[in-house]
Amino acid sequence: MTDEGIDGLVVDAEVRRGDFRLVVAMTVPPGQVVGVLGPNGAGKSTLLSALAGLTPVAAGRIVLAGQVIDDAGTGAFVEAAGRPVGFVFQDYRLFPHLSVADNVAFSPRARGMGSRAARSAASHWLSRLGLADLAGRKPGELSGGQAQRVALARALAGQPALLLLDEPLSALDAGTRLDVRDELKRHLSDFSGPCLLVTHDPLEALVLADRLLVLEDGRIVQEGTPAQVARQPATEYVATLVGLNLYAGRADGPGVALAGGGAFVIPDRGQHGDVLVAVRPSALVVSSQRPQASSARNTWPARIAGLTLLADRVRLDLEGRPPALADVTPAAVAELSLSPGSQVWVAAKATDLEVYTHADTQAE
Amino acid sequence: MITLSRSSGLTARERARRAARGGASRSVPAPLLAPALVAVAFLVLPLAGLIIRAPWGRLGSVLSGSDATQALQLSLWTASVATMISLIIGVPLAWLLARGSFPGQRLLRALVTLPLVLPPVVGGVALLLAFGRTGFLGRYLDSWFGLTIPFTPVAVVMAETFVAMPFLIITVEGALRSADQGFEEAAATLGATRMTVFRRVTVPLIAPSLGAGAVLCWARALGEFGATITFAGSFPGRTETMPIAVYYALENDPDAAIALSLVLLLVSVVVLVSLRDRWLRGGSAP
Question: Which end of chain B has the smaller Cβ count within 10 Å, N or C?
Answer without folding.
Answer: N
